Amino acid sequence: xxxxxxxxxxxxxxxxxxxxxxxxxxxxxxxxxxxxxxxxxxxxxxxxxxxxxxxxxxxxxxxxxxxxxxxxxxxxxxxxxxxxxxxxxxxxxxxxxxxxxxxxxxxxxxxxxxxxxxxxxxxxxxxxxxxxxxxxxxxxxxxxxxxxxxxxxxxxxxxxxxxxxxxxxxxxxxxxxxxxxxxxxxxxxxxxxxxxxxxxxxxxxxxxxxxxxxxxxxxxxxxxxxxxxxxxxxxxxxxxxxxxxxxxxxxxxxxxxxxxxxxxxxxxxxxxxxxxxxxxxxxxxxxxxxxxxxxxxxxxxxxxxx
Length: 306
Hints:
Blueprint: E1 17-23, H1 30-39, E2 44-49, H2 55-61, E3 65-69, H3 75-85, E4 90-94, E5 98-100, H4 104-114, E6 118-127, E7 132-133, E8 158-159, E9 167-171, H5 172-177, H6 190-200, E10 204-215, H7 227-245, H8 252-269, H9 272-289, H10 294-297
Parallel strand pairs: 1-2, 1-4, 2-3, 6-10
Antiparallel strand pairs: 4-9, 5-10, 6-7, 6-9, 8-10
Helix pairs in contact: 7-9, 8-9
């Protein structure tokens, strides 16, 4: 594991649990997230991914420790830096657009007693429209697969093939022993990959129904020019990367073949968001086929890297 790339405010924390929140231009959502965490009696550590909107200062104002990175290093790498800076037994990893309901932390900690052999515990995630988000399948799941993705949402605690990286709890020692999130991934599928490695290590993934978290999906960061293209690029690249990592049929050629024609047709619509969507997916797939890397695209490799 690489050393943390920021300078945390070091304290002697004996808390069994610390919330770990990665921020990137998250000033709008961060206060609600941190206020809920504080209400639950949990200290927070915010890893700021090079924000220019005052997210780091805002986090400090809300009583959080801060690891300030000079630039955006991606979701997984930032979480890994935060995990190394923490001293807690458990990490509650949460997006800045997550707001915990009262009692959520108590329910998660109780679940560690009820299911001591589990490796990960996650709350019931409710979207802003009240919809219960539960992903019934994962590209990388080794069991409990649901190839058609039929909605099959639990009405109580349940083992799951996948738990969303938007909010989950894990033992810090276990997270670090697994190498944390795969640092080759800048964005997308890092949670699928972590869940797969937990499953391969014999660890169960537990959905904790009485712990509720509200999710403002897609609002962790402020809108930015070219965001759709960039997001789709990484989604396509990361899917191809994890597919190859676990010996799944190559998805990059299929994604390129499906999205390149759609990108050309989208140009006729003169709708920038549609063009970005398909062009980004095609470009990410093509980049993977050409041996390019996500870190290279983001300028996170040493000179000469791709």
